[in-house]
């Protein structure tokens, strides 16, 4: 079960960072192809983002699945809203919609 402390931590991260990526590994060294793909897309968009390496925190890894109601990583939050994982991000990017979502979020 999601502890109140963990819930507060996640809520704080997603509200303090316009783009928050929960990934396996780091932006510099992703440790999973799905996380690497998402990092690559966000690098191409040129807006600042924050990442958290869920491989370093087992409690966060499990807690996020519950918090987001999503069973896998990466998990992408933009402007405090859960967007999805790798497949959804790729689809939004291919349709040209991700750049718009990001632009709207950062210009608020
Ligand atoms: N189709 C998924 C692919 C991601 C995926 O399957 N991730 C797996 C393997 S890296 C995962 O996070 N499993 C749960 C876990 O490792 O805790 C997406 O769109 O993000």
Please give a structural write-up.
52% of the residues lie in helices and 16% in strands. It contains 5 helices and 4 strands. The N and C termini lie far apart (34 Å).
Features:
Thioredoxin-like_sf; globular; 108 residues; 2Fe-2S; Glutaredoxin; Monothiol_GRX; binds glutathione; alpha+beta; metal-binding; 4-stranded mixed β-sheet
Beta-strand proportion: 15-25%
Q: How large is the count of helical segments?
A: 5
N-to-C SSE series? HEHEHEEHH
Distance between the termini: 34 Å
Main beta-sheet annotation: 4 strands, mixed
Q: Provide the structure class.
A: alpha+beta
Bound molecules: glutathione
Strand ordering within the main sheet: 2-1-3-4
Helicity level? 40-55%
Q: Rough shape?
A: globular
Overall mean pLDDT = 97
> Using DSSP, what is the number of strands?
4
Q: Low-confidence stretches at least 5 residues in length (pLDDT < 50)?
A: none
How are the SSEs placed, and which strands pair?
Elements lengths: L3 H13 L2 E5 L9 H13 L4 E4 L4 H11 L6 E4 L2 E4 L1 H9 L2 H10 L2
Parallel strand pairs: 1-2
Antiparallel strand pairs: 1-3, 3-4
Helix pairs in contact: 2-4
Bound molecules: glutathione (GSH).
Give a quick rundown of the structure.
Residues 19-83 form the Glutaredoxin domain. The chain has 108 residues and is an alpha+beta fold. It has helices at residues 4-16, 33-45, 58-68, 86-94, 97-106; strands at residues 19-23, 50-53, 75-78, 81-84.
């Amino acid at each position: 079960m999601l502890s109140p402390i963990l819930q507060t931590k996640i809520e704080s991260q997603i509200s303090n960072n316009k783009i928050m990526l929960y990934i396996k590994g780091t932006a510099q060294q992703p440790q999973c192809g799905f996380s690497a793909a998402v990092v690559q897309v966000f690098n191409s968009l040129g807006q600042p983002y924050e990442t958290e390496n869920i491989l370093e925190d087992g409690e966060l890894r499990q807690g996020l699945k519950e918090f987001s109601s999503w069973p896998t990583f990466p998990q992408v939050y933009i402007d405090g809203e859960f967007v999805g994982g790798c497949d959804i991000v790729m689809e939004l990017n291919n349709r040209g919609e991700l750049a718009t979502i990001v632009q709207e979020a950062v210009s608020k």
